[in-house]
Amino acid sequence: MTDATYPTLSYPMRRTCPFEPPPGYAELRERPTISKVRLPTGALAWAVTRYRDVRAMLADPRFSSDMRHPGFPVLYEHQVPAPEFSTSLIGMDAPEHTIARRAVAGEFTVQRLRRLRPRVQEIVEEHVERILEGPRPVDLVRAFADPVPLMVICELIGVPYADRDFFLKISSTVMNAPSPEEGGRAMVELTDYLDALVGDKERDPTDDVIGRLAARPGEPGVPGHKDLVGMAFMLLMAGHETPANIIALGTLLLLEHPDQLAALRADPARTPAAVEELLRYFTIAEIATSRVATEDVELGGAVIRAGEGALALITGANRDPDQFARPDEFDIGRGNHHHVAFGFGGHQCLGQHLARLELQIAFDTLFARIPGLRLAEPVEALRFKDEAINYGVFELPVTW
Ligand code: HEM
Predict the structure, then answer these.
(1) Which of 75, 207, 329, 357 has the highest local Cβ count within 10 Å?
(2) Per its UniProt record, what Gene3D superfamilies does this chain match (predicted)?
(3) pLDDT one-digit tens code per residue, 13-37
């Protein structure tokens, strides 16, 4: 096989349709073996797009999540966290990762989150109420998709929601590919803020996720001060941004498929399946599943050498026809929910049950309370987050 047969594609790739993955993913998936793509840094990394290869890679302990490893496939040099930042769970490897994850996992189980359901419902209702009382059209991102998950994660981890404008500004700067200087400054600002907040909780523990961890210093896996700040940072960012993007994109997609929306409204018992299908269809958080090989690994018909970077392109895997029949069709009746939108293996999303809870309540309530909800602008006029860390839509003007 020569380079002339299979050209080296660049990554990230642009979507040509807001609802479809970049066409290069299918091209890569159809090649007989995995191949390398060129990153903006100029480095090469393996692109893994087939469902079975992605799952094999993400379950394999020979791949490391350590972004500071010289071979890690960072997209931009400034993404490598400065030594003073703690990368928390997402950048750790076993066995430290396993111990650290165990220390916090109990906070995010299905059983634990069940208790949160009434409060999430209340938060969603309040925001829908405010939309109904306000002017039309309204930007659903600002009025609903952003504030609902932000309020939920703030209350859960014990961060004052009163400072929401500050968090929203920081997360938008960190996530939406700003200049390296701006991104770095935003990270320092939020770290300083959380450093003080965690300090307060250590002195006077509060009844929330960070407060409860701060009350258990020295226990196995319980993060020390710096790592607790890193964990608060990650939970706040990951816990808000991703559900916010999928709430906005999911609303858009359902409005664009009125027959499926009608089926959902007629039978809300279908919502959990619809949420899984939305997660599969968009797969908004893909950069998180990048790794570096620590040993030679045979995968997808090639050998990834120790020290080489590899990208598990879960967006491609979730459209793999070998795993999903009619993969490019959005179908809330699809029975197969074994998608990898939350990743796979040891780092699989810690907040997935929380995300599901929020998304199910958000869609059920929004469409039940605002039956006439519709787009106020054509899809062609919307701006999508094509260059951001997580995919999404910047504004979603709706009316009813
Ligand atoms: C629809 C919403 C969400 C999507 C699509 C999503 C996606 C992902 C993905 C793909 C990973 C895997 C990273 C890897 O393999 O290294 C991940 C990890 C993680 N997510 Fe989420 N996520 C979502 C919501 C949330 C929420 C609400 C929280 C808040 C608690 C959260 C917290 C985390 C954490 C802490 C990790 C790191 C886990 C680890 O490294 O052990 N996520 N997420």
Answers:
(1) 357
(2) Cytochrome P450
(3) 989 999 999 999 999 999 999 999 9
CA distances from 143 to 138, 140, 224, 395 (A): 7, 5, 36, 10
C-alpha span between 230 and 326 (Å, rounded): 41
Domain 9-399: assigned CATH number: 1.10.630.10
- For the segment 370-376, the average pLDDT, to the nearest whole number, is 97
For a ligand 1 pocket test, name from 242, 289, 318 the mutation site with the most ligand atoms within 8 angstroms of its C-beta. 242
Which DSSP state fits 343?
A: -
C-alpha closest to that of 244 among 354, 122, 348: 354
CA-proximal residue: ligand 1, atom 41 (nearest): 347
- Domain chopping of the chain, boundaries: 9-399
User: At residue 332, what is the residue type?
Assistant: I
Residues 334, 273: contact at Cβ < 8 Å? yes
Would you tell me how many other CB atoms lie within 10 Å of the CB of residue 111?
Answer: 8
Assign 36 to helix, strand or coil: strand
44 pLDDT band, cuts 50/70/90, is very high
Cβ pair 26, 17 in contact under 8 A: no
| Residue 65 beta carbon below 6 angstroms from any ligand 1 atom | yes
Q: Residue 55 has which token pair?
A: 């799952």
CA nearest ligand 1 atom 35, residue? 350
What's the average model confidence in pLDDT over 328-350?
Answer: 96
Distance of alpha carbon 234 from alpha carbon 106, whole angstroms: 17
Contacts of 191 (CB under 8 A, 6+ apart): 84, 85, 229, 233
Q: Examine the pLDDT at 371 and tell me if it is beyond 60.
A: yes
Which string of DSSP letters, residue by residue, matches 7-31? --EESS---SSTTS--THHHHHHHS
The protein residue whose alpha carbon is closest to atom 30 in ligand 1 is 351
- Per-residue pLDDT at 229 exceeds 90: yes
Euclidean distance between the first and the last CA atom of the chain, given in angstroms as a whole number: 56
How many C-beta atoms surround the C-beta of residue 286 within 10 A? 23
Nearest C-alpha neighbor of 318 from the set 12, 1, 98, 29:
29
Whole-angstrom Cα Rg for the chain: 21
pLDDT at 1: 46
Give the strand pairing for 290-293 and 44-48: unpaired
